[in-house]
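Students often ask why inverse folding is considered easier than folding. One informal answer: many sequences map to the same fold, so there is more than one right answer. In these notes we will look at a single instance of the problem. The structure comes first.
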């Protein structure tokens, strides 16, 4: 399975105040820059968002594809599912946990690696 990095859409890659249908906020430039660098290095990046968890007609996927095309220059795969290929998740709501311990990892500990 090909390794990939997941990036949350709302509040991580795009500005977010409240859910507004298929409208997606303006890009958050530092994250956008990071994604462009990853892509240039050949890293697979997926948009990881709950928006597609109940997207029967594909309306949210189409909005995300259009947003990515405009701001990233290409569509990215969009998912709401983790699998064994995911090596990192960038998310404004996640808490990093030390593997096999259940202990929360502080930002200072993350930056040591």
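Output (designed amino acids):
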């Amino acid at each position: 399975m090909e390794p990939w990095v997941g990036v949350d859409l709302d509040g991580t890659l795009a500005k977010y105040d409240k859910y507004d249908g298929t409208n997606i906020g303006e890009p958050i430039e530092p994250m956008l820059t990071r994604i462009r660098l990853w892509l240039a290095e050949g890293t697979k990046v997926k948009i990881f968002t709950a928006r597609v968890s109940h997207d029967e007609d594909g309306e949210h996927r189409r909005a995300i594809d259009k947003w990515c095309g405009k701001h990233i220059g290409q569509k990215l795969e969009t998912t709401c599912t983790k699998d064994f290929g995911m090596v990192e998740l960038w998310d404004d709501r996640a808490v990093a946990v030390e593997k096999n311990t259940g202990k929360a990892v502080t930002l200072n500990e993350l930056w040591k690696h």
